[in-house]
């Protein structure tokens, strides 16, 4: 099994600049992330861009598509900003049929306390190896197909759906763990 | 999709006791892990035990089996020590056929810098939702069936195999990321 | 020895809001900071404000002065934004003569990787107990009197001086450690 | 002002070995600690040893003394194990009169969550610059002279005293922060 990790930026990879107090980009954190994860399958990292997904133009999304098409690997994880993850998935979805592509990202940057980044990256690296060819989004411990996902910005989670949840329907809040009685302790 | 997380201890959940300098167990870290992962599917946590897997007896492994059999969920992640993860998987493997059970753990405790714990937990939560029913081990970004996995203690990684690698064959070392030329930056 | 810790905000106490991607303020981190520091002398925490020091008005600085004057403790640490730390120190310096007041802060928020916050806080808690009464700034492992300190925003460090370093004189860069031959290893 | 940092090991600098699960020593963390602290005064690092202080012999303590005597700096911070910090301080105390030497360490290793290491290091770097020549211990946000300090192993804190607290007198527990009403929020 060989995996390709494509970095495009996003909150996941943001870096705090102490001189101006701005969260922007420096080098990707993914080399460190991959190293600490102790991944023994082949995992090639390709940094396509380091952008906030709100700043992505169609040309940027086309670069992501091109990188996927050029890849020899059949399993690809794309680290991407959450705000327009869907939009890039929509560029790939109708086109890429021969590979399993899993988009993921983070609500809290990898370098900030309590980040979901490493969990999401692990989750995506897993399901990229097991899902059938197609384009997916993996966030909040949930797998979505590219055409059935939307970001609920109010709740800060991803949900099934084709459009933004404009109605007041109750969003899925991040779950707290429900401890249940076990067989011992 | 509903998930059950079963905690049994292991390096993943070890806690440094500052009064005696020993790495042992206090409360499981899994409630915090689940919360920071922002999991929106139902994820019930059950603490069956908090043991170093070198200290697990057959009765402890039977408790894990019993917890799996009693679970209503079809997808289960078991956080377990790495030293005898295989042994417990061997207790479940021949018996549990109607659920997807994924063992994972960590080489470095969750509370220590550079831990692989959160990556492994995310990976396992993902593949538990996609693998067909059966018993698996997920470590090092790799999926193993319960009957084809062994821990290479010298290299600190899991490999395919039915027995410990007593020979001097070259173990799979954790990969560093191989950066490749991308389509932009 | 009793200490008072006065929180006013600043980069030290900033918190990442995952819903809008902004670094702002939630609860102060200082209760956790004090707890993990295992401080056995009496250390009373007072949250006067949680402001970016660029947003501080004269009324805000007067509140800090009032808190210092009202305090029964003779040793006070003030956690403050670095951008106008000097300005608040200038309000206290000519007036407070009977207490040792030490301003500190951080260039990187406490909750972000590689933060200087905890080092600075420890440093300030130490020198607040040993310096003679007066008003000081403690940043970059250096002690400054309130009337001889300025923030070099280009280099991101504090230096001696009465005005901002408008000239091109070489700023003091944060030192890397110089390892020297020891008597053993 | 120039500072010398002398590393001798201790819990502060312990490192988790993932292959055998043991907390031992690898390279000192102090280069990283000094770098993230953004120290602008000269701070020379000397690694004299990396030992658990329970394993220190008289010869090891003599090495520490020799390093202090050879140092050109007048302010020295010694990072040392807490269990026999007093014993080494007792070797230096009667002898070193022309420098300010401050011993510190940690109850929780620097690389483990909630460590007091960085706070203690900052505290010591501060008071090393302000205390009169002599030998001191700085732990728990408290300054002790070398001849009036003892480690209360039951409570995991340092206290004034010349002998271990064999009696059942109530030890000083690490304080939680007492929040008091402030002049604003």
TrEMBL record, chains A, B, C, D:
L-asparaginase N-terminal domain segment(s): 3-156
PROSITE patterns to which the protein is assigned, alphabetical: ASN_GLN_ASE_2, ASN_GLN_ASE_3
Class in the EC hierarchy, top level: hydrolase
InterPro entries found in the cross-reference section: Asp/glu_Ase-like_sf, Asparaginase/glutaminase-like, Asparaginase/glutaminase_AS2, L-asparaginase_N, L-asparaginase_N_sf
Record bears the keyword Hydrolase: yes
Official protein name in the record: Asparaginase domain-containing protein
Any one GO molecular function term: asparaginase activity
Pfam families (UniProt xref): Asparaginase
Cited SUPFAM superfamilies: Glutaminase/Asparaginase
Active site, per annotation: 82
E.C. code: 3.5.1.1
Keyword set, alphabetical order: Hydrolase
Keyword Ligase: no
UniProt cross-references to Gene3D superfamilies, sorted A to Z: L-asparaginase, N-terminal domain (3.40.50.1170)
Stretches the record annotates as Disordered: 162-185
């Amino acid at each position: 099994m060989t995996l390709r990790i494509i970095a495009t930026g996003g909150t996941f990879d943001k870096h705090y600049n102490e001189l101006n107090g701005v969260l922007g980009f420096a080098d990707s954190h993914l080399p460190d992330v991959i190293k600490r994860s102790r991944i023994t399958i082949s995992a090639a990292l390709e940094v396509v861009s380091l952008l906030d997904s709100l700043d992505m133009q169609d040309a940027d999304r086309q670069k992501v598509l091109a990188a996927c098409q050029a890849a020899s690997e059949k399993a690809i994880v794309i680290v991407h900003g959450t705000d327009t993850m869907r939009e890039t998935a929509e560029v790939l979805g109708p086109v890429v049929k021969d590979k399993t592509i899993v988009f993921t990202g983070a609500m809290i940057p990898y370098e900030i306390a309590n980040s979901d980044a490493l969990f999401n990256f692990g989750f995506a690296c897993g399901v990229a190896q097991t899902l059938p060819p197609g384009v997916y989004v993996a966030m909040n411990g949930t797998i979505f197909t590219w055409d059935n996902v939307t970001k609920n910005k109010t709740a800060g989670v991803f949900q099934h759906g084709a459009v933004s949840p404009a109605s007041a329907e109750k969003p899925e809040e991040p779950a707290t763990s429900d401890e249940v009685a076990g067989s011992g302790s």
